[in-house]
Design a protein that fits this description.
The structure is a single chain. By secondary structure, the chain is α/β, with parallel strands linked by helices. β1, α1 and β2 form a beta-alpha-beta unit. α7 packs across α15.
Length: 456
């Protein structure tokens, strides 16, 4: 019996755990699922004969050592900053490790030791990062195999609400961590390269600089720039590419509306608001507006944002109950961002019958035999229900597949790495197709960068 330890049984782990449970008989697996909440772990195990659920405290060194030593491979679904402790123990006991998180500088520093112990530490093998890397590298490598040179690479990904569950004016609901949505784009200027020119977008302009695209069967979307599009330039072998842009997808109109919160200051997470626990939603909104002896909160806000009463932006604000004097924040010592998250969660939480949707879009322009060509690749995944969401499937399944292939000796190259080699991405992408995670590639006329943003 081969032992797999999964640390963390949160929302992203449901499809991961189910995949390995389904494979346990055939692959001779015993799976231990550890979580701070034993109840949550038990819920994911469902009494399966080849699994056990345990209460697991990552800071309990004795327990951590015991469980990692017992395992043949460790899957860490913890928050990214906690992977390092797991990684050190995996080195100590010579165990392979898999995560869906970005590689931290501290983890990267372990690369030589990991290689010296002939271990595979596979990271960034979820959705974004993960499927984005693998699907992009497949296209890029195929172009290079034909003798082509990539001159443009754009990649977008978004967690959205499925069309059948899209029933609010924002065309959006929380399908993942709401806090990350509220804080998106903060903490640094977005940077990318466009037609050979380095470009920078500060946070206060981020949501007014969008690119538009169409996904067949699903309509139009918009994308805003991720914080650092250049970090994967060398990883993808695109050091001399003319355009490199990575972004987040939303339905058209979302970014313009979200910018109202940015303009008002509601997404700020750097200070605590006085008396936030007893503050009404209306008082919260009024806190960001100038005092006036007679004008209402509504009138002041429309004036500040320069929107009219018949503007769809106004209707979107009304839909969120921002002017309700009877709804209380109820959060002690809360920042504006935390209060906004609470208000949005009232309206944007998925209902039990709702389904989520993942959309990924790559645009790859290249030169071959003196001609410029372009491939557009799209992937749309719809969730099954509130447990096996599209997000859980696209994050968890590639993690599970990678772990099993490492365990079976199909992925052997050692080191702290991400899934950008053929040894890794080809078999994982192939198996994902059985779960309807499929990229549709289409050759289209080369357009260069989006014409709306092409001026230097």
């Amino acid at each position: 019996m081969r032992n797999i330890l999964i640390i963390g049984a949160g929302r992203s782990a449901s499809s991961l755990i189910q995949y390995l449970l389904n494979k346990s008989e055939q692959e001779n697996l015993h799976i231990t699922i550890g979580d701070l909440s034993a109840e949550l772990a038990e819920k994911k195990v469902k009494g399966h004969q080849h699994a056990r659920a345990i209460a697991f405290d990552i800071f309990n060194e004795a327990q951590r050592h015991e469980e990692i030593e017992r395992a043949d491979i460790v899957i860490s679904m913890l928050p990214a900053h906690l992977h390092y402790e797991v990684a050190k123990d995996c080195i100590l006991f010579k165990k392979h490790m898999v995560t869906a998180s970005y590689i931290s500088p501290a983890l990267q520093e372990l690369d030589d030791v990991v290689k010296g112990n002939n271990l595979v530490f596979m990271n960034e093998v979820g959705l974004d990062p993960g499927i984005d890397h693998m699907s992009a590298m497949k296209i890029i490598d195929e172009i290079r195999d034909k003798g082509g040179k990539v001159v443009l690479f754009e990649s977008f990904c978004g967690g959205l609400v499925a069309p059948e569950s899209d029933n609010n004016l924002w065309n959006y609901k929380f399908t993942w961590n709401p806090r990350n949505v509220v804080l998106a784009g903060q903490g640094g200027t977005a940077k990318f390269i466009q037609e050979g020119n380095y470009k920078y977008i500060p946070y206060n302009k981020l949501f007014r600089r969008t690119e538009f695209m169409h996904v067949e069967g699903y309509g139009r979307f918009e994308g805003y720039a991720n914080r650092d599009s250049l970090k994967y330039r060398s990883v993808y072998g695109l050091d001399d590419v003319l355009t490199l842009y990575r972004g987040t997808l939303r339905r058209v109109g979302f970014s313009k509306s979200w910018n109202m919160f940015v303009t008002l200051g509601m997404t700020d997470d750097t200070y605590v608001m006085e008396n936030s626990e007893k503050m009404s939603y209306r008082e919260f909104t009024n806190s960001f507006l100038p005092y006036h002896p007679t004008d209402s909160v509504e009138l002041k806000l429309r004036h500040i944002l320069k929107i009219d009463q018949d503007d769809i932006q106004w209707d979107k604000l009304l839909e969120l109950d921002l002017f309700n004097p009877n709804k209380i924040v109820g959060l002690r010592n809360a920042t504006p961002a935390q209060i906004l998250e609470k208000i949005l969660s009232d309206k944007w939480t998925l209902s039990p019958e709702d389904k989520d949707m993942i959309v990924m879009y790559h645009k790859v322009g290249y030169e071959l035999n003196g001609e410029k060509k372009q491939i557009d690749a799209t992937m749309v995944c719809i969730g099954d229900d509130q447990t096996y969401t599209a997000m859980a499937k696209t994050v968890g399944l590639p993690v599970a597949i990678a772990a099993l292939k490492i365990l079976n000796g199909e992925i052997t190259t050692p080191g702290v790495q991400m899934p950008v080699s053929r040894e890794v991405y080809l078999p994982i992408l192939k198996e994902l197709e059985a779960f309807n995670v499929v990229f549709n590639e289409k050759h289209v006329p080369y357009m260069g960068y989006n014409p709306q943003n092409v001026a230097s």
